[in-house]
Amino acid sequence: MSGHGTIERRPSRRTAAVHPLPGPPAKGPARGTGRGRGKRLSRLLSNSLVQGALILVALVWITPLAGLLISSMRSEGDNASDGWWTALADPSRLSLDNYGALLKDSGIAAAFGNTVLISVPTTALVVALASLAGYAFAWLEFPGRDAVFLVVVGLLVVPVQIGLLPVAKLFGAVGLFGTVAGVILFHVAYGLPFAIFLLRNYFAEIPREMLEAARMDGGSEWRIFSRLVLPLGRPAIASLAIFQFLWVWNDMLVALLFADSGSQPLTVALQSQMRQFGSNIGVLAPGAFLSLVVPLIVFFAFQRHFVQGVMAGSVK
Fold it and tell me: 233 or 9: whose pLDDT is higher?
């Protein structure tokens, strides 16, 4: 009863249960978020048409590789008479004699060793220096940090051809021209800008709270870098290592200009063989496949890390 003699009506429990008060909508994966994009990407890749297209692309990519492998195991007469696909009808005619003759060639064997000697140290130096510089640009405060990083980014647009002549003169003055060390230094110098840019942007995505918590626990900058940043940045570091190794392994321009006959890699040795013997497929096919199989092994060995590095940041 109210003061005016009327009865105040209150909602019963049954009414409140049937007609609940409006509240915030239930939370779920919003459209456009990383989880939603990941689900849509998974559904797209599970589509049979997409899988068929990917299989077709893989077959198109593998066919030249298979042709090169089969041609490298055929005799020069067979390669001159018909196509490589005819060997599929009679595989008994395939042999490894071409590889044996190629490896017995001291020039090719030395060139293969020079390629390894150039590619491995270059990749290791670029990854190590870029990791340190990327962490410094991302999380360390020092005067002129942003200006220096802008200079590094600006170096990305400088073509390799512009630096060939001045660097050649510099190497000639200091005695590095025509040596393996000169080729390594050139590749390191021109590989660092992109490597620093890539790793700095990746390291900058690490949550600041993790680094501050490590500093509050008494961790030094080196300990934070080696125990926290490097493990978290492993996908990007592995992707960078794969790209850098492939670039250096397949390079011919820099090695053609900066390496002499005693320090030339496999690409330059094969080019000289082609110039000397013309279209000698018995020499070029096994040499080309030998230079191709090592990057394939490296790629498939680090494939999992490479995919993680490519997909980093696309799905949260």
Answer: 233
Which residue type sits at 9?
R
166 neighbors 235 (Cβ within 8 angstroms): no
- CB neighbourhood size of 131 (10 A): 23
Secondary structure, 3-state, the chain: CCCCCCCCCCCCHHHHHHCCCCCCCCCCCCCCCHHHHHHHHHHHHCCHHHHHHHHHHHHHHHHHHHHHHHHHCCCHHHHHHCCHHHHHHCHHHCCCHHHHHHHHCHHHHHHHHHHHHHHHHHHHHHHHHHHHHHHHHHHCCCCCHHHHHHHHHHHHHCCHHHHHHHHHHHHHHHCCCECHHHHHHHHHHHHHHHHHHHHHHHHCCCCHHHHHHHHHCCCCHHHHHHHHHHHHCHHHHHHHHHHHHHHHHCCCHHHHHHECCCCCCHHHHHHHHHHHHCCCHHHHHHHHHHHHHHHHHHHHHCHHHHHHHHHCCCCC
The residue with greater pLDDT, 290 or 184, is 184
Burial bucket for residue 64 (CB in 10 Å: 0-12, 13-18, 19+): exposed
Q: How many CA atoms lie within 13 A of 228 on its CB side?
A: 21
What average pLDDT score do residues 57-70 get?
A: 86
**Mind listing the pLDDT tens digit for each residue in 218-252?**
888 899 999 899 988 888 898 899 889 999 999 98
Q: What is the pLDDT of residues 260-282, one digit of tens each?
A: 888 889 888 888 776 665 556 66
